[in-house]
Design a protein that fits this description.
about 160 residues
Length: about 160
């Protein structure tokens, strides 16, 4: 769902960017965010796998990964049991699942804040900041060019 929403935002930003270049920059940042999220997740998985040690960083990354997985499970329960066209198959109420998801999000925020302050090098590697078009251009020599391709698949189908 996240990738579909992001894909729609990228397409809209680039279409509007024809008339207003600020939207081109937004699209450029959104495309990077798509790949940075995938990269961050892969790095967290790698750190979790190899972080079987007892260091504070290893423990915190494992806790983050476990909580992210539980959050996905909770979100899936919500989607599968409480979307408009679904039949509830869980004994947990929608309100209880929403409250659980909110607590999971708050705990993730605390972990992310700790990673930023206690392990800034890891945080910079795992969660790099996307560059604006101007920042990317500043990194290029006068005889270099950067071309970015992003396939944004259609998210809606016409039923008519």
């Amino acid at each position: 769902m996240y990738r579909t929403t992001l894909s729609l935002r990228v397409r809209a930003a680039f279409r509007m960017g024809v008339a207003d270049h600020r939207f081109q920059d937004e699209g450029f940042l959104l495309v990077q965010q798509t790949f940075l999220n995938d990269t961050a997740y892969a790095i967290a998985e790698l750190a979790n796998r190899f972080g079987s040690g007892k260091s504070a960083l290893a423990k915190l990354v494992r806790e983050q990964q476990d909580l992210m997985n539980r959050g996905i499970e909770t979100a899936t329960l919500l989607r599968d049991n409480y979307s408009p066209d679904s039949i509830s198959r869980t004994e947990q109420s929608e309100e209880a699942l929403q409250a659980l998801r909110a607590r999971q999000d708050k705990t993730l925020d605390v972990i992310e804040a700790r990673l930023k302050t206690e392990f800034p090098e890891f945080n910079a590697l795992a969660y790099p900041k996307p560059l604006s078009i101007a920042e990317a251009q500043d990194l290029l020599a006068s005889d270099e060019v950067f071309i970015q391709f992003y396939e944004a698949k259609a998210a809606f189908r016409s039923t008519g």
